[in-house]
Every structure is written in structure tokens, then in C-alpha cells.
């Protein structure tokens, strides 16, 4: 009598994993295809202070202002990121890092600058830090075009009826009450991020012409944001990652988002001059608790400001 041996459970898993692997690969290829097509459609004769040119500047910054721009005068960004690498759908996606409610909020007080800042100064904040570049001249066509664009998307959003102005987004991050674990962050990175952002976080260029920028942008290294950027703060990065990543399938837990944010911010990236960073937050008590660079108005070590736990630092300032 032949004994019936049930197939090992593992083989069903192998099939299931293979199928879900195919689905994931098709999904990633789809994202790659759509984004790489968008990167191709860049007219070079768009220069005018219009919302339309502003949209191109936000969506394809590396083409117009990046380090591979043929005219050295117009190489304003040091990274090859686009504004839209973080402000998704060129800022039109409401919610985390959306630019849909931005225009009417400026001018506003800026703790970092220690004074009121208008929208142009705020854009320059991202130019110098998130884009690792330099300021755009205040009255340049590019600056006016970006302001016109941000104004137009804010106006369109405000003109949408309140019932339709819904933000479909996951619950906001609740930071774990512990220091981030870089080992756990690395495991999240390898399982969930690496497939798009590359095994060394280097990203994937849209074509052999680096001026076209990235389909999957770099998370660290020479062409990523610098250490003065908002994304360089673990809580800011974790909020974005929880809300938006993995792209098209944001499903990380608070712990995973927190750890992977710390992991990518533990990696090398461009640095702003220390003298420049020292001028940030003239009122040091206004400095965000997760600011990775000193000086601080509290006794906590820099390591804790970089990777937590943040609750004790928050408690310290509440008592002051
Ligand atoms: C690496 C990610 C990243 C890139 C690239 C980036 N930004 Fe930002 N931007 C941020 C973050 C993070 C904030 C919020 C900062 C904070 O919380 O301190 C922000 C805030 C802003 C704000 C203020 C929004 C508001 O409603 O107050 C504007 C305007 C802005 N960015 C414009 C731009 C423009 C224009 C570019 C391209 C030239 C750009 N950003 C590139 C990450 C980025
Ligand atoms: C399916 C591909 C894909 C996966 C997987 C993915 N991302 Fe992204 N990520 C993107 C794309 C695409 C953008 C930029 C969006 C754009 O340009 O429109 C982006 C942007 C980002 C940015 C802001 C820009 C920058 O370079 O700093 C961060 C940070 C980020 N991703 C982190 C993560 C982390 C952490 C994970 C894993 C938990 C992850 N991503 C998984 C595709 C992906």
C-alpha cells in the first residue's frame, strides 16, 4: 500500500510567493513605466513666469535646475531630486507634504529663520537643503513661476467643495517611545524599499541622461537631500514614509516607518556648512526635537536628537 504523503506546506508557499512576486514586479514595472514616460516629456522652451512652467519646474526640477543642466549659471540644485520626489504628484496630492494648502499660509513665522518668511524664502529653504543647492534669485522667472504654480494648486483646492476636499491618508505616525533600531530599519529597507531605491539607496535614473533625473530617487549619497533638510529629521521622514511609502502601497507600521527613517538618515549624504547650520533656530528652544545637528538648548546628546527616544526631550521642553 502506498502511503499518501501530503505535499509539504512549503511548496504552496513557494507558489504563493512566486505569484505575489510576479504581481509586485508587474506593479513596480508599471510605476517605472509611467514615471519614466513623464520624465521624457520636457519641452525646453517653457520659460515664462507662468503656473505651467512652475509645474514643470516642480515635477522635473533636475531637467531645468539640476547639476547636469548644460548652462552652469542655471545649475541651482546639487541633487538630482525633483521637488515632486517628496511633494508627490507635483504637490497636488493633498495630505503629507502636499502643497494644496500652502499658498494662503505665507508669509508666516519661521523658527528656523527666526523671522517671518514668505513663500519665496520657504521655497529657497527646500532649494538649499532638500535639493542641496543654492537660492534662486527672488525675482527670477523660475521663482515667480513656482509661486504662480503653488498659488494655482492652492486656489484649485480651496475652490473644491468642502465635501470633496477629503484627504485619503493613513492615520498619522505615533512615534514609538524608544530609540530607533538601525538593524530593524535595515531589515525593513531590504524587504520593502530596496527593490525600487536600489541596494545602496542610490535610486534608479530615468535614462542614461542623468539630466532627466530619477524614476526612483536616491535616499542617501551625493545626489540626495543634505543633512539640513526636513527629510533628514527622523520624525519628519517617518511621517512621510508611513503616509507614502512603499510608493503605491503605503502599509508600514509606526515601528517600521520609524526604524527605516532612522536607517536612511544614518547613511552618508551631502553636508551643509556647519557655520550655516549653526545659524538655524536663533531661538534654540524652537528647534525641533529631532533636529540632527546642534547646538541644542537642552542637555540631551546629539545621538538622542538623531534617533530618539524623543519623548524625554519633548517632556523637558514642556517643563521649561
Ligand atoms: C527631500 C524631500 C523634499 C524635496 C526634494 C523638496 N521638499 Fe519641500 N518640503 C519638504 C519637507 C520635509 C517639508 C516640510 C518641512 C518641515 O516639516 O520642516 C517641505 C516644505 C515645503 C514647503 C512649505 C509647505 C507648506 O505648506 O508650508 C514648500 C513651499 C516647499 N517645500 C517647496 C519645495 C520646492 C519648490 C521644492 C523643489 C525646489 C521642494 N520643496 C523640494 C521636503 C522636500
Ligand atoms: C514601487 C517603488 C517604490 C518602493 C518599493 C519605495 N519607494 Fe520610495 N519612492 C518611490 C518613488 C517613485 C518616489 C518619488 C515619487 C515621484 O518622483 O513622483 C519615492 C520617494 C521616496 C522618498 C522621498 C525622496 C527621496 O529620495 O528622499 C523617500 C524618503 C522614500 N521614497 C522612502 C522610501 C522607503 C523608506 C521605502 C521602503 C519602506 C520606499 N521608499 C519604498 C518609489 C518607491
Textual characterization of the structure:
By secondary structure, this protein is mainly alpha-helical. It has two domains: 43-164, Cytochrome c-like domain (Cytochrome Bc1 Complex, Chain D, domain 2), CATH 1.10.760.10; 182-319, Cytochrome Bc1 Complex, Chain D, domain 2, CATH 1.10.760. It has helices at residues 9-40, 51-59, 61-65, 119-128, 141-159, 182-197, 234-244, 254-265, 274-278, 302-307, 311-319, and strands spanning 108-110, 115-117, 204-205, 214-216. The strands form two sheets. A two-stranded antiparallel ribbon has the order 1-2. Helix 2 (51-59) packs across helix 5, helix 6 (182-197) crosses helix 8 and helix 7 (234-244) packs across helix 8 (254-265). It is globular, with a radius of gyration of 22 Å. The relative contact order is 0.12. The mean pLDDT is 92. Residues 58, 61, 81, 83, 85-87, 97, 99, 102, 105, 122-123, 126-127, 130-131, 146, 225, 229-231, 236 line the site of one heme C.
